[in-house]
Amino acid sequence: MTATLTREPHRVGPLADRLNGILASRGIDLATTAVEDGHAEPVTALELADARIPARYRRALADHPKVTAWADEIAHAGRPGPGGPGIAEGPSLLIAGPTGTGKTHQAYGAIRTLLARGVRLRWEATTTADFHARLRPRAGHDAERDLQTLARCPLLFLDDLGAAKTSEWTEELTYRLINHRYEHMLPTLITTNLPMEHLRVTLGDRVASRLAEMTERVILDGPDRRRTAPAA
Ligand SMILES: Nc1ncnc2c1ncn2[C@@H]1O[C@H](COP(=O)(O)OP(=O)(O)O)[C@@H](O)[C@H]1O
Ligand SMILES: [Mg+2]
């Protein structure tokens, strides 16, 4: 049989439908991004998901061997599902290192690797400072529901753990978030500026002890890339 090339819209299956739903709920209209000049172009799951990744990290590649090994492990453990393998229980990854060494880049790179492998991925990303701000009590806002969304999400990226100002209240929130993910063995990408030996003092023993058991560790070093790279 000979394949026929057409200009018909290219469907990428149920995964794209799910991503479309997620993006639509965030006010992103794919009809205007996927089709130009009346000609439909193929849209990959990775391209759809890229819309949720901050512009600076939209082309990030995870090139650290421990980060790619982690992504491989998660991809292999994926549960079969209608739109491709879905995220299952698995190890988490803690990427530590000074400012500008590429922690956030590696983390988004890992998410992109999973998407490129066709893993059916429901993921959330937040900095710790935004996580605290999002859950601050305010009228008409259900903070508990937000906490549950992040705690239960199949893959969570928690950026800059330990960098935000803490209080007893934020420590309790962080504990509840990490403890849920620890108990349910939900893969979590975490970055931190803190040296390993400071984790316990800054985050508290309950969080540090769980992180010690649930995460594989990557330490990045080198100069601050923001100060050495040409402006972009
Ligand atoms: N492996 C890499 N290749 C190219 N650019 C990188 C790489 N890692 C980081 N960068 C760039 O360096 C800058 C700092 O990286 P970032 O991940 O934000 O650092 P950190 O999160 O450790 O503070 C960003 O502009 C990022 O795009
Ligand atoms: Mg960062």
**Spans of at least 5 consecutive residues with low confidence:** 1-12, 27-39
Structural class: alpha/beta
Q: Tell me the CATH topology of the largest domain.
A: Rossmann fold
Helical content (DSSP H or I, runs of 4+): 40-55%
- The level-1 CATH class of the largest domain: Alpha Beta
Percentage of residues in DSSP E strands: 5-15%
Q: Ligands bound here?
A: adenosine-5'-diphosphate, magnesium ion
Strand order of the largest sheet: 4-5-6-3-7
Number of strands: 7
What is the general shape? globular
How many domains? The number is: 2
**Number of separate helices:** 11
Radius of gyration: 19 Å
CATH superfamily of the largest domain: P-loop containing nucleotide triphosphate hydrolases
Terminal CA distance reads 48 Å
Q: How would you state the average pLDDT, rounded?
A: 82
Give a short account of the largest sheet.
5 strands, parallel
Sequence of secondary-structure elements? HHEEHHEHEHHEHEHHEH
